[in-house]
Amino acid sequence: MTARSEADPEFLVLYGGIDGGGMLGKGTGGDQKDAAFFATSSHGTYGATVGARILFLGAAIEHHQYVGSGLSTWTQISGGLDMNVGLGSDKEKKAGKGGFFHLGATAGFGVGTGQQVDPPLSNDEVTDKGFLLTGTLGFGKHFNKMVDLGVSLPVTWGYYFKNGVAANDVSNHYQGIHGEALLYLRLNLKLL
After folding, report:
1. Domain 4-190 belongs to what topology?
2. Percent of the chain clearing pLDDT 70 (strictly above)
3. How far is Cα 130 from Cα 74, in angstroms, rounded to an integer?
4. CB atoms < 10 A from the CB of 69, how many?
5. Residues with Cβ < 8 Å from 175, sequence gap 6 or more?
6. Could you read off the pLDDT of 104-132 as tens digits, one per residue?
7. 2 pLDDT tier (thresholds 50, 70, 90)
8. pTM (2 decimals)?
């Protein structure tokens, strides 16, 4: 097995996928840490992602719903390092098959709601906003050049604000961390 970056022959990839799994979160600081979005949301999750990767850089829009004892939603946009490293044989790589290791490090912005919303989303439905830093490890399998199935383990730290209070009022700020374990199915469109 030889390892090489799959980003070398894939200059531009557009992708979309669905995922599901679990989440754990905790407020780590600030006046609102006990009311942190990811600490108070249900632990089951499912969602969708749409993104693009150019060489080893990527950007994505993600939307997740957290279900269990209640329902909340989180939508974010992020960008940064996004790369796959092939783990299969050279023959599998040429056929667009085989396993891969995923590595990501991104920064982004997101908004959360404490309940199900009906689009279009208005500001009064948003409960939390935040700036995020995420590190992701994952493993998967290319079934062909278009379809991937894998497991993703993102860990996110964020600086958050409760909505509805003046932005310069630090009593509505908090920091938090959360991690997810997600099983995903992804469709890839390799343009270059």
Report:
1. Porin (2.40.160)
2. 94
3. 10
4. 9
5. 27, 28, 29, 30, 33, 157, 158, 159, 160
6. 999 999 999 988 777 787 888 899 999 99
7. very low
8. 0.88
Burial class (CB in 10 A: 0-12, 13-18, 19+), 20: middle
Q: Characterize the bridge pairing of strands 128-142 and 44-54.
A: unpaired
Q: Is the peptide bond before 120 cis (omega within 30 degrees of 0)?
A: yes
- Please list, in sequence order, all residues whose beta carbon lies within 8 angstroms of the beta carbon of residue 31, skipping any fewer than 6 positions away: 170, 171, 172, 173, 174
Please report the pLDDT score of residue 93 as a whole number: 74
Q: What are the sequence ranges of the domains in the chain? A: 4-190
Cα(32)–Cα(154) distance, rounded to whole angstroms?
A: 23
Q: Is 124 helix (H, G, I), strand (E, B) or coil?
A: helix
* Spatial contact of 41 and 180, defined as CB atoms under 8 Å apart: no
Residue 8 has pLDDT above 50, yes or no: no
Q: With beta carbons less than 8 A apart as the criterion, state whether 60 and 77 touch.
A: yes
